[in-house]
Amino acid sequence: MAKVFFARVTSYSDTEKVNAAARKVLNALAKDNPKVKFEGALPIKVHFGEKGNNRFIEPKNFESTIEWIHENSPAAQPFFADTNSLYKGARTFKADHEEIAREHGFTSLPVIIADGDHGEEFIEVELPKKEGENTKHFKKFLIGKDLAEKEQMVVLAHFKGHIIAGFGGAIKQLAMGCASRGGKMAQHSNSKVFIEEKLCKKCSICVKSCPADAIFIGEKSIINKEKCIGCATCLAVCPTGAVKREPKVGGEKEFLKRLAEYALAATFTPKGKKKKIIYLNFALNIAKYCDCMDSKQRLVAKDIGVLASTDPVAIDQACLDLLEKQKHRKIFGGYGAVEHAEKIGLGSRAYDLIEIK
Questions:
Q1: At residue 76, what are phi and psi to the nearest 5 degrees?
Q2: What pLDDT, in 10s, does the model give residues 192-214?
Q3: Which of 31, 29, 9, 6 lies closest to 18, judged by CA?
Q4: Relative to the CA of 195, which of 42, 163, 303, 351 has its CA 20 to 30 Å away?
Q5: DSSP letter assigned to residue 89
C-alpha cells in the first residue's frame, strides 16, 4: 500500500505554515525513502499560472521545498519547468511563457520551457513492453525534451477542479504538464489538424514552421494527414486561427484514459528507465477550474493541506477523499483518470494516509 504523508493547513494565506507543512511531509517521505536523493539537473515541475489567474500556487509557497532539495540533495541542480499551452494565450510561446513566470514571481531558480519555442522540441517516448501492453490509445508519447531526457523530477501540483479533466493534481501535471503541444493535442482529441479555408490568408507561416513538410498552401490549403506528425506547431503559429483541431474523440471517459496513459509515459525515460520522482500536492486555493484559466476563479472548498508521496495515483486519490470528507459529497469529476492510472500500473488507489502534526 502506498504511503501518503499529509500536513494540515487551514489557510493558504499563511505562507509560513504552508512552507512548514511542505517541509514536514518531505522530511517524513525522506525518512521512509532514504534513497530519495537527486544529482545533477532536476526539473521542478510547476504551473506558472495563466495571465489573469488568481488561484495558482504562488512560488513563495515553494521556498521550503527548494531549501529541502538543496539540503537533502546538495548535488542537485533544480530548475522550474513547464511546457507551452495548447490553446492561444500568454503561455503559447516560450518568451511569453518565461515572461509570465517572471511576472508571477518564479525567479528563485532558472526557468526552462521544456518543449522549446512553440512545442517543437520533444522526444517520442515508448513505454517498456510490459507497461505498453496495458495502454491502448498510444504507442508513442510526445514529451517535452527537457523533461523527457531527465531521469528524475519533483512534481509540485495544485489540487483543484478542471473544466474537462474533472480535477487537476499529480496525474494531470505529469500528463498535460510534461507533454509537448502535440502531446497535449493527442490527449484532447487523439487527432490531427485541418485548415479552415475561409480564415486562411495564404501567408504560408505554417508551411515554413512545419517540421514534416505536411502543409500545402494554394488555391485550397491542405494539411497532409499522412505526413502530419501531430506536433501542433501550425496551431501555435497561425496568425488568423485558421488551423483547427478536429473534435475530440471518445468523450470524457476516453479522454481520462488518454490522460492517464500520458502520465505513465512521463515517468519513463526514452530508454525505458523508470524515473525517480516525488510528488507534492498543494490542496489549497481549491478553485472550481484550473490554473490555465485567464480570469479570477472562485473557491469551492476550504484549504486542506500539503501532501507528499512517491505514488501519483495514491496522492491524487487521497486529495479526492479528503475533499469528499470535507464536503460530504463528491464535487469534482475525473475519477476515471485515477481508476485507469491504477489499472495500467502508474500507481495504487489504496494508500496509507499518515498525518504529520
A1: -80, 150
A2: 789 999 999 999 999 998 888 99
A3: 9
A4: 163
A5: S
- The region that residue 259 occupies, defined by phi over 0 for left and psi between -120 and 50 for alpha, beta otherwise, is alpha
SS3 percent helix, strand, coil of the chain, rounded to 5, is 35, 20, 45
CB neighbourhood size of 189 (10 A): 19
**Of 168, 165, 146, 147, residue with least CA distance to 49:** 168
- Which run of H or E residues covers position 193? strand 193-195
% residues pLDDT > 70 (the chain): 98
Q: 157 vs 165, 280, 283, 351, CA distance in Å?
A: 14, 6, 9, 18
Task: Give yes or no for a contact between 122 and 143, defined as CB atoms under 8 angstroms apart.
Answer: yes
Beta strands, E only, 207-314: 215-216, 222-223, 243-245, 276-283, 305-309
DSSP annotation of 111 reads E
pLDDT in tens, 122-151: 999 999 999 999 898 999 999 999 999 999
CA pair distance 51, 20, nearest whole angstrom:
28
Integer Rg of the chain from CA: 20
Euclidean distance between CA atoms 208 and 37, whole angstroms: 44
- The alpha carbon dihedral of 131, 132, 137, 142 has a sign of positive
C-alpha cell at 286: 481549491
Nearest to 109 by CA among 49, 24, 43, 10: 43
Q: Residue type at 109?
A: L
CA distances (Å), origin 356, targets 20, 276, 313:
11, 23, 20
pTM: 0.87
The cell numbers describing 219, all together, are 488555391
Grid coordinates given for 232? 501542433
Residues 6+ apart with CB under 8 A from 107: 59, 101
- Which pairs with CB-CB distance under 8 Å and at least 24 residues apart come from 110-113? 110/79, 110/80, 111/48, 111/79, 111/80, 111/81, 112/43, 112/79, 112/80, 112/81, 112/146, 113/81, 113/82, 113/83, 113/84, 113/144, 113/146
Cell, residue 294 = 485567464
Q: What angle do CA 58, 61, 67 make, to 5 degrees?
A: 130
State the pairing for strand pair 76-82/111-113.
Answer: parallel
